[in-house]
Amino acid sequence: MLGKQIQRLERKYGHCALKNLIKYVIGANIAVYFLSLADPSGRLPAALVLDPQLVLRGQVWRLVTFVAIPPATGVLWLFFALYFSYLVGTNLENAWGAFKFNVYYLLGMILTIIAAFLTGSPVGASNLNISLFFAFAHLFPNFELLVYFVLPVKVKYLAMLAAAVLLFTILTAPLAAKAIALVPVFSYLLYFGSDIWQMLRLKNQVRENRRRFFNEIEKARRRKE
Asked: For 211, left (φ over 0), alpha (ψ -120 to 50), or beta?
């Protein structure tokens, strides 16, 4: 849906794109994690979370720093989470180019900020990361991941599972959680909505052509009889 607009923006501002964006995000996550080890009270991550009430009191850095909060507390899980973020981010940037990836990431941040202010709830970057995963699954649906290092599962099936969890959240959770859960949905649809629409139209056209083909065969058979 945003394809043409992004192309126009890229022609004008493509030189401003930050290459290897995901590496900077991962670096910030690692820095926050190790700095937090010196203060187990959790004050540092708490100072970075996107809290709209505190932003309105002047803590405007929270509009950006929430993406630096580590997605896990254990070293092993943090390693795997950040490695997966690296895998997703670098592949998206290679497929799209730095500018388009920057815009998609920024779009996820903006939608997260909007959802936080609409609900008044503090949020992190988890749903922003899910939006990246959905984009990755769209572009590389047959990419296989080893779940628990044993079971090979295609990314598209994991994305379906994540989508089911989001749908359940949207249907059953309180309003604030619904709004936050919609962030990856809107990010994905704004970027891939036109592709999905074209694909559905093509499938419908193929189905219609097949129906007409078999109808013509049936008519020819009846004429022969």
From this structure: alpha
